[in-house]
Amino acid sequence: MHVKSIIPLLAVAVWLLCLGCSAPHDNPYDSESERYRPPPATPSELAGRIHSLHITRIFPTTPSYSVIAEVYGEEAVMQDSVWVSFNGRPELTLRLIQPENIWAFTFSASYFGEDDPQLGGVVGRPFVFRSKDNQGYRHDVGPVYLFRVIEGVPVVATPAGNDTVNSLPLLTWQPFVASFPFGYTAAVVNITEGFQTTVWTSPLLGDSVLSIQVPDSLPLPEGDYFWTISVSDSFLNSSRSKEGPFVVRNEER
Q: Which of 94, 124, 145 is the last residue of a domain?
């Protein structure tokens, strides 16, 4: 073949090669395309849960209700962002709680409507979670439902009313009655210059336990405190008592 006839063919080949390299990336399967979306991730080790929190206080006297949405699991720490939506409403962003590696968001009762402060209308309605992990894969979790709101309130017995106690007080409370299985959890809070710090929380106690002593390994320094008793069910729904204020003073004084 004559050299002059080969040159046009080479030019066409080079042009086609360049065209292939610079073609617009509008293929959704092209990773450089704006239309590209990562393939769905394989099933992830993520789970979601919804539970209610009912808190009563000495002041203000109006009880507060809230709903806590959580995503947890082995892959929780690998997520870049997590969102939750309730009953089809716009998504809200969860926050990563460490070192537990749980993504959480707390809904106040007002989010669900001023006419339902005790969250009765939220029970049985769907919450759906969505997440994006560190590699851009997306995951859906849910729907998940709120199973119960605990209306009853546990009551502290002693100490209370600013009783003076030693560094290892015995905490007692009144029996709580419910139609479902539950357990108790006691918590002691120190008050110093207006700041509140939880200094001890008991393990989950059986429903027949009505007292617990602050352990010998954690004697309370002198100061002002209060304690609370909470009940919780198997779905982590809980109700907390009003505070029981007390004062720790050394017996030698």
A: 145
Distance CA 77, CA 46 (A): 10
pLDDT higher at 9 or 209 = 209
Structure tokens at 183: 């357990």
More confident residue, 20 or 181: 181
Average pLDDT, the chain: 87
Domain of residue 12: give its range.
Answer: 1-37
The answer on 72 and 128 residing in a single domain is: yes
pTM of the model as a whole: 0.78
Q: Residue 69 and residue 65: Cα distance in Å, rounded?
A: 14
Give residue-wise pLDDT tens across range 129-173.
Answer: 999 999 889 999 999 999 999 999 999 999 999 999 999 999 999
With respect to residue 238, please indicate whether it lies within any of the assigned structural domains.
yes
